[in-house]
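Consider the tokenized backbone below.
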């Protein structure tokens, strides 16, 4: 892997300080999968539920999910991953998510992102994790970065008396929906810093008023995601944004 240069981290931290000194909104937003860690937390949680038979699923769960994604829409597929939790308690779901995530110290995270987020927190910035995965799948990993439950924004269904329902709650946080979900949470305050790795994060990056950071870590063997991330790196370079490719 190509290391994220320490000099680049320091440059970003210096620019963060300058932007805040100039009055930037103290709000930052990070995508989750591919941006804070290398794996897909949402699909990993789905596989954990499937493997341990924790929820009722179709005969071919992955086939159903992929068909929804391609034949209906990604939004419908992502929402379905939350809807299958209907009838479970929120406490159960959060416990399963922790078990699916495993020890936080073993997560495939990025040291540079941790240093940047730690700096943002020290400067009094509200740091949000904005994901197209279901919120509960991402909460444990976000905690590694010091991002609490209340600052994780993802796809959710309504919870009534501690019980999950299948009714959509808030925006589908995919593409432009990521911006909608963030602004709803911040009372309309746009982030001054945003980081992402895919075209689904482009609206969130474009919404940032000052700094944007594109990450890329998918190996060439994962051709589809590799191509997506490298395209995003090209976009970042063309637009003068920060970027780093680990491959």
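A designed sequence for it:
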């Amino acid at each position: 892997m190509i290391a994220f240069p320490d000099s680049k981290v320091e440059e970003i931290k210096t620019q963060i300080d300058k932007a805040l000194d100039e009055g930037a909104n103290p709000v930052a937003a990070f995508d989750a999968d591919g941006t804070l860690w290398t794996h897909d937390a949402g699909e990993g949680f789905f596989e954990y539920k499937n493997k341990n038979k924790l929820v009722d699923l179709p005969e071919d769960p992955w086939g159903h999910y992929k068909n929804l994604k391609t034949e209906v829409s990604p939004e419908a597929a992502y929402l379905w991953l939350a809807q299958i939790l209907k009838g479970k308690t929120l406490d159960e779901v959060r416990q399963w998510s922790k078990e699916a995530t495993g020890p936080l110290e073993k997560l495939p995270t990025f040291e540079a992102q941790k240093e940047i987020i730690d700096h943002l927190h020290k400067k009094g910035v509200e740091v949000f994790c904005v994901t197209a995965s279901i919120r509960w799948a991402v909460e444990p990993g976000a905690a590694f970065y010091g991002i609490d439950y209340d600052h994780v924004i993802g796809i959710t269904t309504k919870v009534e008396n501690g019980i999950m329902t299948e009714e959509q709650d808030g925006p589908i946080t995919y593409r432009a929906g990521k911006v909608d979900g963030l602004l709803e949470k911040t009372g309309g305050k746009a982030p001054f810093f945003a980081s992402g790795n895919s075209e689904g994060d482009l609206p969130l990056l474009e919404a940032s008023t000052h700094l944007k950071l594109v990450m890329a870590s998918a190996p060439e063997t994962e051709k589809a995601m590799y191509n997506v991330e490298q395209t995003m790196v090209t976009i970042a370079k063309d637009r003068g944004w920060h970027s780093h490719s680990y491959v």
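The chain has one domain: 6-245.
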